[in-house]
Structures are given as C-alpha cells and as structure tokens.
Design a protein that fits this description.
The structure holds two protein chains of two kinds. Chain A is 0% helix and 56% strand. Chain A is mostly beta strands. In chain A, strand 7 and strand 8 form a beta hairpin. Chain A is globular, with a radius of gyration of 14 Å. By secondary structure, chain B is mainly β. In chain B, strand 6 and strand 7 form a beta hairpin. The mean pLDDT of chain B is 93. Classes of the chains: A mainly beta, B mainly beta. At the A-B interface, strand 4, strand 5, strand 11 and strand 12 of A face strand 4 and strand 5 of B.
C-alpha cells in the first residue's frame, strides 16, 4: 500500500496563477482532509470530505476549493494564488467507525510545499 | 473551536530522560489523539485515548486523560535522539480534528 500520496511535492506560483493539488489514498477511507501548516501556527483545516461527492469547510477555507469525485481522490484548488497561501499543504484520510461516526486516526501524506511569489 | 493547546511550546532534554507534554481543550470530546511530526514530514499517529479512558500505554508512551479538567498528558519514557520531533494533540468531537501548535521536543545525546 502506498498510503496517502500527494502531487506535486513542490511548486512555485506567481500571484494570480491557479493550480490543483492532488491527494490520493489506497486504504478505502471514507474521510479525507486538507490542512495547511505555517510556521508557528500548527495545522489548520482547510476543507474536508466525509464521503464521495461531499465536502465541507474547515477553519480556513477562503481562497480554496475542493472536489471529491472519486472516493480515493481529494483535490484542492487555488483559483487565484496569493502570497498568503505560501505554506505546506498536507492531505490526510481516515476510516469511519460507528453511527454516528467517530473519528479514528488520520493518515497523512508527505506534504506539498507551495510558494507564491 | 475544539483546538488543543500544547504546553510547553518547546522542551529540551537529554537522552534517557522522560519527556512530558500537556494538552488542554475546551469542550466535550469523543477521544483525544496525539501525533508526531518529524522535520519536513507528515504527521504520524501515536495514540488515541477515548473519553471513557483515563490512561493508555503504547511502548514507551503513556497518555492520560482527565475529562473533568479537560486536559491530557503525553509521557515519553527513556527518550532517545530519534524522539526529536514536534508533538501535537488533537481533541475530537466530530468529523474533524483541530490540531494545536505543538510541542517541539529536542533530545540531545
């Protein structure tokens, strides 16, 4: 199993450019998440998905869009990149247990380092 | 927000010593999780403690949970240089986890 993979690993964008970050997991997990990590800020949740075709906003959703068309993939889009979006982006996934569902451990990808100039 | 807050922000110890990190949170939880992050890497799950548990062990790790005080602690016994990393707590009460800023642990030989 590859676990959680992220593409690309590094990217430099100019202000106003757009890009899509791809997250893929091969563990058949229901839940997927996008976080950003900035120095001194810890991890902040951008968007998450509790199943194929569903997404929800996290703590810092502005400037980002997401899609979960397939269960194994979760895409994060930046339509018009800004320098404030310079960060390391992490994707994570977890499986569902119980009804109502409770959270089990999250599995993280290696991260994408994005610089917006 | 159910964000955890870790304390201290930074901790420096020598190999063989024990390291204790604390976490506080604000509302009721289903469980609380601890993660480790080595420099430049993604987070790795260490241990999960449910709200009806008071203590849990995993190898050299010991986690306690006091729901009345809304706090948890992570103890790493007999620390090794390889334990150098950032440690995050993540209280959970729903679909998502809200991570704190972490405790940066440095273990020197």
């Amino acid at each position: 199993n590859a676990g959680v993979t992220q593409t690309p690993k590094f990217r430099v964008l100019k202000t106003g450019q757009s890009m899509t970050l791809l997250c893929a997991q091969d563990m058949n997990h229901e839940y997927m998440y996008w976080y950003r990590q900035d120095p001194g800020m810890g991890l902040r949740l951008i968007h998450y998905s509790v199943g194929e075709g569903t997404t929800a906003k996290g703590e810092v959703p502005d400037g980002y869009n997401v899609s979960r068309l397939k269960k194994q993939n979760f895409l994060l889009g930046l339509e018009s990149a800004a320098p404030s979006q310079t960060s390391v982006y992490f994707c994570a996934s977890s499986y569902r247990l119980g009804d109502p569902p409770t959270q089990l451990e999250q599995y993280f990808g290696p991260g994408t380092r994005l610089t917006v100039t | 927000s159910q964000q955890g807050e870790e304390d201290p922000q930074a901790l420096s110890i020598q190999e063989g010593e024990n390291a204790t990190m604390n976490c506080s949170y604000k509302t009721s939880i289903n469980n609380l999780q601890w993660y480790r992050q080595n420099s430049g890497r993604g987070l790795v799950h260490l241990i999960l403690i449910r709200s009806n548990e008071r203590e849990k062990h995993s190898g050299r790790l010991r986690v306690t949970l006091d729901t009345s005080k809304k706090s948890s602690s992570l103890l790493i016994t007999a620390s090794r240089a390889a334990d150098t990393a950032s440690y995050f707590c993540a209280p959970n009460s729903g679909y998502a986890l809200n991570f704190g800023k972490g405790t940066s642990l440095l273990v020197t030989p």
